[in-house]
């Protein structure tokens, strides 16, 4: 049977890479977003707001996807609002698709806050898991919109008879503009500002992160795992961690990133230096840099998500992710983390997002 994908959040960091992965394997692919991308050859745009059930149903009229990939979320001020809004988006989507009877598989992307806690209580003492984190780690006794999103998928699967998979990446590295969680682009913007001003490229995070082991998820490798799980019988109705497959220390990687930009690296000096503070007054500076170099995006805040980079690099523990579960079932992809960053920087330069 022809695979027909609906990628929800196709304009985002994961969704855009997933759409390209599916198209490369001859899937009919629809990309749903409030403002769909028009620049991916073969991607069929669907403009819809997941918070508007009536408009969503109209946008999906005549569409009968076999596979649904949910890669979208909206950040709210409190976890209670995160739960209401993001749980509601999943429910509205699956309710709109239910009468069609076409869906065979639904994949939901969440993340390591499944193990580390929601934004309101992220990586706080008393809830820290043993690392590397594994999929069998129980849910924390905390409200978490990831858990609510999962439960919406489970309930719809029981109602409609489709299989599901849950995917938990760690710090996604890839190109996106307007993304709310984007460390790779944030660090590229920060390094560019350091280059332009002569500032040192100061590590912004904690000693635990600087000295400890870590891992990240290239947007290209999660795209491969999403396609794999959607087409592999053994992966049905399972949750999977997804990272590149290597581990590193920021004390090793930081200088290599600095070298790419030709800036002076400064490591952990006993104090956390939040990027949100470091970049707080640089919006006008970035606009000047963008104008001087003819860059495509003059709005600093559409490129840098300093708050989320601070959240990840400020953790009080090293964080690693066990990949054994999907490895045992046959998912063997690997991605060098250094290459993840350097490939991204090269792409940003080619696309005139950094000079």
UniProtKB/TrEMBL annotation:
Gene3D superfamilies: NAD(P)-binding Rossmann-like Domain. SUPFAM superfamilies: NAD(P)-binding Rossmann-fold domains (SSF51735). Residues 66-355 form the PRISE-like Rossmann-fold domain. This is Nucleoside-diphosphate-sugar epimerase. It comes from Hymenobacter chitinivorans DSM 11115.
